Amino acid sequence: MNTTLPSYCSRGVRRWIQLWEPRLAPLQHVRGKKKRVSAVSTLNVRLLQDMPEYGRQGAIVPVTTGRMRNQWYPQKRAEYVTVAQLKALNLHRTTFERDFMFGMDQPADETSSANDAEGSFEAALGRARLSPQELLHLFAVQLPPILEFVRAPIPPAPSPVPAASSAAADQAAASDSVDVSLAPAPSPQAAIYGSVSTAEVAASITAFFESHPEHARIGLTAEEIAFAPIDGDDAVEPDRVKRLGTFTFVIQPKGLGEFIRRTVVVTAEANAG
Question: In whole angstroms, what is the distance from residue 48 CA to residue 76 CA?
């Protein structure tokens, strides 16, 4: 057996490479950096000031962790919102979004004269109400936890007293006229003149937001508010309470399954009793 390898001249080898190099090039594997797309990490924060393209002060918006860590938090533009805080506000299942159009100047329109009439017509009709999610977010962030109402308590019926001599009766009457300040204080759960209704609660909430830029778009109704029942307490109804005390109520905007809780405190008038 001939084990001698055939010899090729260098000219032949170069010729072979010239013929086959274009065909082998696509099969070559070039090592290099792999392209990797990493997900952008975001978290929900509460704005401490108006931020263009994000939202108004007090709004909860998503922002990248880097921007929050390096810019907004050191510059006191926003604060962190924990999961526990969102759960306390019943917002832990809410998906927050930034307002890309907030603070952006509207482009001038040379033909705006034709649209002025339409704009004034829309203004006359009033802008549409805030969405249920926007309403719930607004109440959760800015509505105080306690609303207070003042009512005059109904005094308890006087207990019958045994008959006494005219002199003793005169003395008792004089004593009552002098010692008015010694009259007993009303019961903490005394019945009241004029119940506190959900319509009054809705009006109070609307008045609280009177200076808010979106005041005209709130439009909260009594049907979206309900008092939490108390077992065995006939003075607490879904649409009103009829005594002094502390009561829980819920706000659930129409078209939304979520709600928030707040508290109503009904106190006695200062000169009652």
Answer: 7
Tokens of 163: 């008959």
d(CA 267, CA 186): 10
Burial 85-111 (b: 16+ CB within 10 A, else e): ebeebebeebebebbeeeeeeeeeeee
Q: Could you tell me the two tokens for 173?
A: 């009457």
Secondary structure of the chain as H, E, C letters: CCCCCCCCCHHHHHHHHHHHHHHHHHHCCCCCCCCCCCCCCEEEEEECCCECCCECCCCEEEEEHHHHHHHHCCCCCEEECCHHHHHHCCCCCCCCCCCCCCCCCCCCCCCHHHHHHHHHHHHHHCCCCCCHHHHHHHHHHHCCCEEEEEEEECCCCCCCCCCCCHHHHHHHHHHHHHCHHHCCCCCCCCEEEEEEEHHHHHHHHHHHCCCCCCHHHCCCCHHHEEECCCCCCCCEECCEEEECEEEEEEECCCCCCCCEEEEEEEEECCCCC
The edge-to-edge listing of strands for the beta sheet with 191-197 is 225-227, 245-251, 260-268, 146-153, 191-197, 240-243, 236-237
Structure tokens at 112: 């705006």
Give pLDDT, residue 32.
Answer: 54
- Residues 130-174 have pLDDT tens digits of 889 999 999 999 999 999 999 999 988 776 666 555 555 566 555
Burial of 44 (0-12, 13-18, 19+ CB in 10 A): buried
